[in-house]
Amino acid sequence: MEFDDPVRMLQICTERLGERAGRQFAAMARRGFLLTPSTGTAPATGRCRLGGPALLEPGASWPELGGFPLSLHAVLDTDALVPWLGDELPTRPGLLNFFYLDPDVPYEVYRKLDLSDPGACRVIPADPARAVEAAAPEPARSYPATPVHAAPVTMLPDCWDVETGDVEFDEDEHWGVSSLILTEMDGLDGNTADCHAAFGWPDTSYASPVTRRDADGPAVHLLQLASDGELGWGWGDAGTMYFTIPVKAFQAGDFGQAEASIRCC
Which SUPFAM superfamilies match (predicted)? Predict the structure, then answer.
C-alpha cells in the first residue's frame, strides 16, 4: 500500500496489527514513487521517462545477449529523485537506463532466447552531464518516449514480501506472517498493482515475493513496469516486470548486479 502520510500509515498498522506488530510492520516502509505520464499539472520529473532512446555516455556499448540487442524500457533520473529518497539512495548514479531482452523477431526465434540468463536485463548508469541519446539498434524494440511524473509516496511491503521474523504474530491464529498481513490489513497490504513505480516496494500480488533475500536483507526494488497498451509492451496475462538489486550492490553503486523478473497470472 502506498501512503502520502507516514503518520497515518503507522496509525493504520497499529490499529490493525496491534501496537508491537504494527510498529514492526511500519518500520519496513520504504520511500518510492508512482510513475505516471507527465501533464500540465504533473510535470516530468527531471529526465525520467518510459521508452524512447537510451541516455548513455559517449562510447558506451548498447547491451546485447547472444547477438540480440536489449530494448530500452525506462530511464530514471536519480538526481531528481534524491530529495525524497535521501539516505535510501546511498550513491548518486545519475541516470539509470533499464534494458530487457525482447527483440522484434519471429516467434520461432524468440522462443529460443534464454530469458533466464542474467544478461537478459541490464541497468546502466550514466553521468547526466555527459549522457547523449542513443537509438536502439535493430531488432531491439523501440517504445514511444513518455516523460513521467514521479509522485513521492511511502510504501509498505505486501504480505508476500514479509517473512517470519519481520513481524510478530500468533502462530495459533495464523499459518504464517503472510496470513497475518493478508487478513488483518484487509486489502491494504498490496502496493501498486497495474502501475509503474520506482523504488519503495513492488506489488507482488502473485503469491510469491519479488524482493529476494540474502544475508543483508531484502533486495532493493528499483523499478516496476506494468503491462501497458499505450506504450505497446506486455508480459503474459496482466504481467509485470520488476528490476531489483542486492543490498550491498546497491550501496556500492554496482548496478551490474541488477536482476529482472516477470510475474503474470
Answer: Hypothetical protein YwqG
C-beta of residue 125 within 8 angstroms of C-beta of residue 253: yes
For 49, the 3-state DSSP assignment is strand
Its domain, for residue 141, covers 2-263
- What total number of domains does the chain contain? 1
What predicted TM-score, i.e. pTM, was given to this entire model? 0.93
Within 78-139, strands assigned E span 95-100, 121-126, 132-134
- Report how far residue 151's alpha carbon sits from residue 198's, in angstroms, rounded to the nearest whole number: 10
Query: How many residues does the structure list for the chain?
Result: 265
Q: Which of 175, 189, 250 has the alpha carbon at shortest distance from 219?
A: 250
Domain with 219 in it: what CATH number? 2.30.320.10
Q: Could you report the per-residue pLDDT of 56-102, keeping only the tens digit for each? A: 999 999 999 999 999 999 999 999 999 999 999 999 999 999 999 99
1 contacts 190 by C-beta, under 8 angstroms: yes
Q: Residue 143: phi, psi to the nearest 5?
A: -100, 150
Residue 11 cell numbers, joined: 496509525
